[in-house]
Amino acid sequence: MTIPRIVILTGAGISAESGMGTFRDAGGLWTQVRLEDVATPEAFARDPVMVLDFYDMRRQRAEAAEPNAAHYALARLQAARPGEVLIITQNVDGLHEKAAQAEGADPAGLIHMHGEFANGLCAGCGHRWKWPGGRMTVESACPACGARRVRPDVVWFGEMPYRMDECFAALAACETFVSIGTSGAVYPAAGFVAEARGAGARTLELNLEPSEGAHYFHEARNGLASQIVPAWVD
Ligand code: BV8
After folding, report:
1. pLDDT digits over 138-191, tens only?
2. Which terminus of the chain has fewer CB atoms gathered within 10 Å of its CB, N or C?
3. Is residue 114 annotated as part of the catalytic site, yes or no?
């Protein structure tokens, strides 16, 4: 990918209107279950059944979910400006891909820094593959090494997010940084706006309400992503 002129960071809020739920809003996932019990390597080692069930429930919800107007608007922007727009998503729900396929956008313009529900990962040999569907259990075997240590390909707390070098290179060179549907609570993603602004980019927050990092943004528009993102794109 060429150096993108526009870098867009998305979080759970862009998928809220697709029925995916968020983490820290009222009724969010972290109000229902402790992240320490389901989203750390220690939790997986301690109780793999609980962790695998938590992700199975969310994967099934994602498989049934459809992108909303915000996902489609970003995909239209990417299709209209090939190579110029990079989406870095914290989401693992696959909704940006579904929108990109529908709008003919290049999937190379998408970085899943926290992984994807769509893949299985072997905690034994590190093999990653497209999850064929169905439940992921402690009996699931790695197609490469046969080990029964299969986990969802998502980045847990305490693990290094994916493709950070590419993310920071894009933040250092982009003209515009837009953050959509994220509370700004989780690092390193929460630090992206400061990186981009420090490198001279214009920064914009599109969110239901001001995030924890709102003070870093030159401009903010608050409202539902399905309304304010298409309004910004179009
Ligand atoms: C790492 C997995 C190092 C997949 C997730 C103290 C200070 C700084 C950092 C730390 C610290 N203590 C610990 C850390 C590090 C830690 C961290 O940041 N902890 C936080 C809690 C303080 N970070 C890490 O561990 C990261 N790794 O640092 O590694 C390292 C170095 C060397 C070697 C090895 C390791 C890894 C972080 C990734 C964790 N995995 N998810 C999954 O299960 O989904 S994080 C999880 O939170 C999700 O990925 C999610 O995307 C992410 C952020 O949440 P949001 O997306 O922002 O969602 P949230 O609900 O919070 O907010 C939603 C927003 O949308 C709200 O603002 C709301 O108003 C808005 N909204 C709602 N509805 C709408 C809307 N907006 C528009 N329209 C709507 N309709």
Report:
1. 999 999 999 999 999 999 999 999 999 999 999 999 999 999 999 999 999 999
2. C
3. yes
Three-state DSSP state, 153: strand
Q: How far is the CA of 158 from the centre of ligand 1 (A)?
A: 11
For residue 114 and ligand 1, the question of a CB distance below 6 A is answered with yes
Domains, in order of start, for the chain? 1-20+66-114+161-234 (3.40.50.1220), 25-64+119-154 (3.30.1600.10)
Residue with the smallest CA separation from ligand 1 atom 19 is 186
Identified catalytic residue from 96, 112, 114, 215: 114
Assess contact for 115 and 153: CB atoms under 8 A: yes
Strand 115-122 versus strand 128-130 pairing type: antiparallel
Is 10 in a helix, a strand, or coil?
strand
| Burial environment of residue 26 by CB neighbours within 10 A (0 to 12, 13 to 18, 19 or more) | exposed
Give the predicted TM-score (pTM) of the model.
Answer: 0.96
